[in-house]
């Protein structure tokens, strides 16, 4: 049986791996479908302390991975299918039939951007449909684009995109923004951003070119339909945590974020770190910080059990 199993290899998981490895706990790190997590879909990271000139997201994750490995972290590819949390011997069932067992588990499976779920949207992800302005904004220099959402993320994305283009349509399903006043005001006062209120996307158009060319929209109050021409569609309707295998096994909020107190979940020996338990900050550095906290909590727990 392992002493520590870490689920996920974003900044939270890899920091937990570094700390538990340096504590000689030889953590086993389960690496899912997106090794390195959301940062591997980013280009330059300029706000991770320690890198004066910034660093590419995938490079940062590669460094973190190797740093933890240097102290004895081990990696195993696998998708968590289900779990049986039994204090003292938590079982993690992976795809392919493997089960791994540990005295402590650190869940750092992260979160992912939400999409509308339209068939046309799904088909065009990576071909004009994206959820990351930071990653893809520069591809749409001087082109018409749209952002969907009314929260802080949508405001932030739309404002960031004004660096590249002055033709931005913000599409929101209500007549009032959810975003904080300061962010909302910046958008409302920016003449590069035109807001379509009470509007939903019915279809992403590609006119048989397999690249986004426009949107079919509907006003939810009047029922009126319209079309706009765009080249890029930025989805900013929130994130959802990757917590499906843990549903019913751990306390979560209504969205599915794990409820943790200083990374301790309601189950003894099970800890949560990073975006999987944080819907507010969602930064690489905060994820790394909570990864460190979870590792220290796991160490203390093991010590208290004489392990
Ligand atoms: P959010 O606050 O949940 O907002 C999601 C937005 O998307 C809402 O306006 C929502 O509409 C809309 N939406 C959701 N599902 C939709 C659907 N199926 N179709 C159309 N529209 C849909 O999410 P967020 O903006 O990602 O922010 C998450 C948290 O991070 C918040 O606490 C936010 O304050 C924080 N954050 C802060 C900053 C910052 O301060 N710089 C930046 C980013 C995020 P409704 O309004 O109608 O529900």
Give a topology summary.
Layout: E1 2-7, H1 11-22, E2 28-31, E3 44-45, E4 55-56, H2 57-70, E5 74-77, E6 80-84, E7 90-94, E8 99-107, E9 111-113, H3 119-123, E10 129-130, H4 133-136, E11 145-148, H5 152-161, E12 168-171, H6 181-188, E13 193-196, E14 199-205, E15 214-219, E16 225-229, E17 232-235, E18 239-241, E19 270-272, H7 284-304
Parallel strand pairs: 1-2, 1-8, 2-5, 8-19, 10-17, 11-12, 11-17, 12-13
Antiparallel strand pairs: 3-4, 6-7, 7-8, 9-18, 14-15, 15-16
Helix pairs in contact: 1-2, 1-7, 5-6
Bound molecules: NADP nicotinamide-adenine-dinucleotide phosphate.
NADP nicotinamide-adenine-dinucleotide phosphate is lined by residues 116, 148-154, 156, 173-174, 178, 237-239, 279-280.
Summarize the structure.
The chain has 307 residues and is an alpha/beta fold. The protein contains 7 helices and 19 strands.
Please describe what this structure looks like.
This protein has 307 residues and is of the alpha/beta class. It folds into two domains: 2-113 and 239-304, FAD/NAD(P)-binding domain (3-Layer(bba) Sandwich); 119-235, FAD/NAD(P)-binding domain. The protein is built from seven helices and 19 strands. It has helices at 11-22, 57-70, 119-123, 133-136, 152-161, 181-188, 284-304, and strands at 2-7, 28-31, 44-45, 55-56, 74-77, 80-84, 90-94, 99-107, 111-113, 129-130, 145-148, 168-171, 193-196, 199-205, 214-219, 225-229, 232-235, 239-241, 270-272. The strands form five sheets. Strands 1, 2, 5, 6, 7, 8 and 19 form a seven-stranded mixed β-sheet that branches. Strands 10-17-11-12-13 form a five-stranded parallel β-sheet, with helices on one face. Strands 14-15-16 form a three-stranded antiparallel β-sheet. A hairpin with an 8-residue loop joins β14 and β15. The longest helix has 21 residues, at 284-304. The protein is elongated and about 65 Å long. The site of NADP nicotinamide-adenine-dinucleotide phosphate (NAP) has 17 residues, from α5. Residues 116, 148-154, 156, 173-174, 178, 237-239, 279-280 line the site of NADP nicotinamide-adenine-dinucleotide phosphate.
